Amino acid sequence: ALTMALGSLTKVTFLLFVIGPIAIVVGQVITLARSTHVHSGAARQPASLPGAGVNIAGAVALYLCLTLAWYGPNFSKTLAYIRSTTSGPLSLGAGPSDPYTVHAVLSFTAGMMNADVSWVFGLAAIAAALLNIPTLITWWRNRDYRRQGLIDAAFLLSWILIPYLLVALGHNQDVRLMAPAMPGMAVILAGLITAVRWVYVRIILAAATVTASVYQVGRLVTPLQLDFLPAESTLAIGQFEAVSHAATRHSGGPNPTVCILESNPIVNGNTFSYLIAARGDAFTIRNITIGPQGPSELETQLAGCDFALYVKQPPIASTNLPTR
What we know:
Blueprint: H1 2-10, H2 14-34, E1 37-40, E2 43-46, H3 49-71, H4 75-87, H5 102-117, H6 119-131, H7 133-141, H8 143-168, H9 182-194, H10 199-221, E3 232-237, E4 240-245, E5 257-260, H11 269-279, E6 284-287, H12 296-302, E7 307-309
Parallel strand pairs: 5-6, 5-7
Antiparallel strand pairs: 1-2, 3-4
Helix pairs in contact: 1-3, 2-3, 2-8, 6-9, 6-10, 8-9
């Protein structure tokens, strides 16, 4: 309850992205509590449905007390913010105008794998899943393990599929909203690799995945450049392109700072930071804000800027936004 409350206070939509695993855990608790006995090692212990209900109710009460302390007084403003970021002005430019199309979903998925998750993880998961087909067949034929295995699989899949669908089918397709699902992806990948029955194949697959991932991360924080490796590998499937970034250009010095003088749903630091990261441009973005001292702060803030950007936008209602 404390973890869920802290997550909800950090991000208002947090609960939506973890509701699947929570529902499965609560369902398991209720199912076990309704049984006459549950096993605990070699001993048998009586289960109590009222006791489980008290625990769940207590957790819900603690969650509500902590979250409503802030969301209660700010309910109307929070609701307006949610509407704006999911289908209103603040969602413009963060996703397609019509997300309920195959092209929009595939474009989002390709972009997510190219820029956020990495095809190193994706290809490793596919390879491990194919290698585990014999194990899956054996598991499915064993009824004693099938039920619990399906529950475990539902827990993990709901951890990543619900956030994925919420973002992929939304007007605001900011991948940062899927952050609660990223640990679930890592757990699934680790589980698939460790389940490979052939020891040497398992070691090779794990070593290759870890080495490639460490190199990718290292290229983001160090000037290391291995000239014999390509900067990226691409694979085009129809109009969609899969990109695996093995290396990126390093500027070798401080990046020029671009200061944004006005932010709106289209021109803002988040959008430019994403584009800079996706393109590999050597710029740093900074938003100019006016604090308590008023316009007198502007000169001081602009002193640290190499460029200042001001774009006068037409009214949002008359802006034709391209779909992704």
